[in-house]
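URGENT: need a sanity check before tomorrow's submission.

F., can you look over the FAD-binding PCMH-type domain-containing protein record below? I want to be sure the sequence and structure line up before it goes out.
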Amino acid sequence: MWRSHLLLLIVHVVCRVDATLFSNVTLFGYEKAQLTDHDLAQLSAEHQAYFGFDDSAINTTFAGVSGACKLAPGDDGFPSARTWEEFNATSIVNGTLIAPKPLASPCYNSWGEYNERKCAAITANWMNPYLHEADPTSSMFPLYQGRTCLPRPDPNATCELGSYPKYVMNVSTVAHVQIALNIARNMDIRLVIKNTGHDFLGKSLGAGALSIWTHNMKDLQFIANYKSDSGYEGSAFKVAAGVTVREIYQAAERNNVTVTGGICESVGFAGGYFTGGGHTPMSGYYGMAADNIEAVNLVTADGRFITASNTSHPDLFWAIRGGGGSTWGVVTSVIVRAHPNMPIVASTFSYSTGGNITKEIFWQGTRKFWEMFPTLADAHTYSYFWIYVLPNDQLQFQMVPFWAPGHTIESFNKLIAPWFDYLRSLGIQFTPKTTLHHSFYPAYNDNWGNETVGASTGLPGNRIFPRSNWECPEKFERMFAAIKNTSMSGHTLGGYHQAPQNRLNVDNAVSSAFRHTLSFLIGMALLEDGENATQAQMQKAVKELTEDILGPWRDVAPESEFGGSYLNEANVMEPGWQRSFYGTQYERLAEIKKKWDPKGVFYATTAVGSEEWEVRDGEWGTQTQNGKLCRV
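Structure tokens as predicted:
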């Protein structure tokens, strides 16, 4: 019966929607193709139970059953393979449903498609983000998938689906999103959302799940004269869910404007990036990416398509800008401010220990840089740097790059002179390559773009350090000693100086830590035996990252003083993640989550409300998504 009901849907899905958003901005074509109440009214009550909206999902208290799990393959009630095939044959779905295989499956006999040539190509490109971006399920950080199917030269080894979803809807209309979401909610199947898969914590993964893949929604519209209900007047872009940072940067350059994106060009712009806050090289002028969002089109937990803005569902609009991805709805497009282009000075350089440059001299010179963070940030600049522990036990500092928007070569040299002069006085040799670019994208293109992902050799985490640590000499000493000790203990670290503050004076859910920060640092615990690490070795690395690397940073940048962690690039095992990731906003976010998604349709690890759920994945050594999702 259930299968036959699906076939009745094919003649009923039509478009009866308002084609305008507001401010005379039209919906994208794919947003006009919606599932409506009129369509569902043509079906029987039984049919509507599967495909219908849930008008009780909003403003209703739902008491979940403790221990109850989302339906998974093998459970009674989970649709059969034939049911999914018939679903896919309907004209509304039209072949967009995918029964995925792991990206590396050509390396194995177990999937019946071993292909030595394909396996070699996948292996050679495994660190390339675009390989994973173009795949409907692959994650750029396979540790959190469970490493169940890595590319290996052993075709007889085991390759399992693991925490890759069971089915994927390659959505190209709002109706596709609504149908997938309604089926998952009404049948109590786990739902996940993937754009590119660039997530350190595995939020686009879920064993047995139905996944909504937004990657192929690529519409992008420049609006020269936009007027927002927030009071903003100026240029803007309307950006579809599948547009990457690279694509919007290129469009901005064509239109002689700048947008606030990140440094990894493979990241999806209108998804986890801005919903996580989105730190950006332009933060010294325009704050966080989320601060620049003027409207969001999305499908909410009840299956309805809405616009969230300052005057339309303002509580949801507040939450989705910084309150985390895969949490509030399925975003189909956003409107983001575009700013005038300005010149960018970018400078790269490095220096190392060796010869007369001892580690102590190295750190004396590096300390001067840290001391200057308030001055550098107040000059609207941003930097991205690494301190490497080399195989010969030497240290190397790499600036890649120092980013100075709105500066000239002369003003940059004057700003940086106290540090450069001090390095030279210590005998530290370095040769800056400093270039003036006349707009954002050429500067970006020259300095970023060699992004690599997909490694299973280490566990990353980060800490946000508050400005108050620079305003109190005692706090600065403790902070710098903790950072220096991380390096001297043999750990590579990377990071940024930046001060997004709240430069556009907006009210949203961006973590309070980002409103007070001067620095954001990344630490890494390496895995013994790399991708072949055992569960015990994984547990050891988790402990090292959480306690030995991030623990001392946490001590000198506690949440009570506006320390925190960037939720998009975090340690999945971060203790007290609610306050660490979301700052003082978490309590309000939790209330909004209960209002808009009381049944827990949207789950992602460490997302708002996720403490009410657990993934029963066994003993992997760290949190993966390779297990049933159940209420705590």
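My own read: The chain has four domains: 1-18+26-216, 220-340, 343-438, 458-594. The domain at 220-340 is CATH 3.30.465.10 (Uridine Diphospho-n-acetylenolpyruvylglucosamine Reductase; domain 3). If you see anything odd, call me.
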